[in-house]
Amino acid sequence: MLKRCAALLLALILFLSIGLAAGEGYDQVFDPAKDEGQFVIRFLWLGEKTAKDKPGDCMILKSPDGKVMVLDAGHPDAVSYVTEALDTLDITRIDYLVASHPHIDHIGGFPVLIENYEIGAMYTSPLTYGASSYYHAYLTAAQEKRLEHIILHEGDTFMFGNEIEVKVFNPPEEIPYPKDYGTGSTQFINDHSLAMKFTYGTRSLMLAGDLYVGGERAVVDRWGDELSSDFMKANHHGSNTSSSSAWRKTVGPKITFITSETIEDLSLTRKFTRNGQQMYHTLLDGCVRLAIDEAGNYEVTTEKVRTSTMFDSN
Which residues, 6 or more positions from 105, have their beta carbon under 8 angstroms from its beta carbon? Predict the structure, then answer.
């Protein structure tokens, strides 16, 4: 009973202390006129929890030369947030459609994007997921449109536009599947998320899907200091399944972005603001825009104005 009361009290404190002031923020975050000549990443708020799943992840990236990447596309019930953002940005062509891993809250929106936008090529890891109808749905949509399908794995590099290098640190090229794969395989699938570092000039960004602590440890052991990045998205929506101390210290970001419809773990969330680091969270800040210019200067714009100080550094 005491634990239940404590949980309710914490929820009430969070509700009262997370203040958001609305305004012209959405238009500022999604103004395409500001993007020219910059590396721009938009972390999308995809709404509240769906019937039984997370609304998921979606990031829209633009290179300085105007190429567009959509990395994940959220749950099928949340894809309208993605199409609204793309349409507001006047995007009709997605040059790189990338799946970090084949869970419904990451690839559920792919069929809609494939149907409604011109796609340059689709990029995935080697991981297959035959037990998922949503996995088959987006592969079928891609095959019907005859999309080029590029498989990425550890050690690969490719260019996003002419100026941004992307290096892949996970998963390995050869994936040994467990005998019961398809049943209770959440951690296995998450640990085979694409982990990619985007480097533009002197700045870098780490995006690693839903890696769990075990997957993070394996990537750190294999790649070490090469993972160091100025910015990162917290793995697995800021959940305590992920973002281990070793991962946070090795990547060592100045700013962490969390994409979730809830505060997954209050203690962990506060750790992203230690030692002068900053944290942005789609629950607290709405959609978030990170823009980096050729000189390495950067700017963060948020849809909402956060009035709470409970996540500030101590």
Answer: 53, 54, 55, 56, 57, 74, 75, 78
Q: Of 72, 101, 100, 57, whose CA–CA distance to 189 is shortest?
A: 101
3-state secondary structure of 225: helix
Residue 123 and residue 153 in contact, taking contact as beta carbons nearer than 8 Å:
no
The beta-strand segments (E) located in the chain are: 20-21, 39-43, 59-62, 68-71, 93-98, 118-124, 149-151, 157-160, 164-170, 195-200, 203-207, 231-233, 255-258, 278-281, 288-292, 298-302, 305-306
CA 33 from centroid of its chain's CA atoms: 23
pLDDT band at 15 (very low <50, low <70, confident <90, very high): very low
pLDDT at residue 6 in the model: 41
| Residue 94 pLDDT greater than 50, yes or no | yes
Q: Helix, strand, coil shares of the chain as percentages rounded to 5?
A: 35, 25, 45
Confidence of residue 268 (pLDDT cuts 50, 70, 90): very high
Q: Decide: helix, strand or coil at residue 60.
A: strand
The label of the residue with tokens 């790649």 reads 223
172 CB-near residues (< 8 Å, 6+ apart)? 153, 154
- CA distance linking residue 193 with residue 101, whole number of Å: 5
In the chain, the domains with their CATH numbers are 20-306 (3.60.15.10)
Angstrom distance (rounded) from CA 223 to CA 217: 10
Query: Count of alpha carbons within 13 Å of 14, Cβ hemisphere only?
Result: 15
Strands 93-98 and 68-71: parallel
- Residue 299 near residue 291 (C-beta atoms within 8 A): yes
3-state secondary structure 176-224: CCCCCCCCCCHHHHHCCCCEEEEEECCEEEEECCCCCHHHHHHHHHHHH
